[in-house]
Amino acid sequence: MTFHRRALMGLSALGALALIHPLSAQQPGVSVEQPWARAALQGGNGGAFLTLRNAGPAADRLVSASTPLARVTEIHETVREGEVMRMRPVSALDVPAGGSVTLRPGGAHVMMVGLSQPLRAGTTVPLTLTFERAGVVEVQLAVQGAGASGPAAAAHHAH
Ligand SMILES: [Cu+2]
To answer: Signal peptide: which range, if any (predicted)?
Structure first.
């Protein structure tokens, strides 16, 4: 009986939320634009970069990332310590409602640690992103040259 009552309360709470936010239940809110990575060696680490755009009415958070090509995949931010820029893992990355966050070299990025195969320019690499609200989003990273600073570089350098 207690269980039943709890289940009913849960359902009515969900119903109320759906009435207040009719769009948020259907729209994931967060989209991923221009996912790319830098070429990297087998056994090394690879940086993944992209733009997270949140069209939804609520803030979201990127809480994890993974790829079968890496032993561990972390979310990193880059911080200045005196004269030195250092990367450090963070547990999540905020994506504000109606806003966007760009992961780029020298800033926040996804770090694929311990690559089981090289990342070769011109190929694609699968990356799974998990958001607190939007859930799981699968993307394909377009691998650019090792020194690339943005997603468009390879399009001009192909051939
Ligand atoms: Cu890093």
So the answer is: 1-25
At residue 25's C-alpha, the angle toward residues 22 and 26, to 5°, is 95
How remote is the CA of residue 105 from the centroid of ligand 1, in Å? 9
Query: How do residues 71-83 score in pLDDT, each as one tens digit?
Result: 999 999 999 999 9
Q: How far is the CA of 78 from the centre of ligand 1 (A)?
A: 8
And the tokens for 108?
Answer: 């926040």
Contact yes or no for 99/60 (Cβ under 8 A): no
Backbone angles phi, psi at 123, to 5 degrees: -100, 175
Task: Kindly report, residue by residue over 19-69, the tens digit of the pLDDT.
Answer: 444 444 445 589 999 999 999 999 999 999 999 999 999 999 999 999 999
The CATH homologous superfamily of the domain defined by 27-147: PCu(A)C copper chaperone (2.60.40.1890)
Helix (H, G, I), strand (E, B) or coil at 123: coil
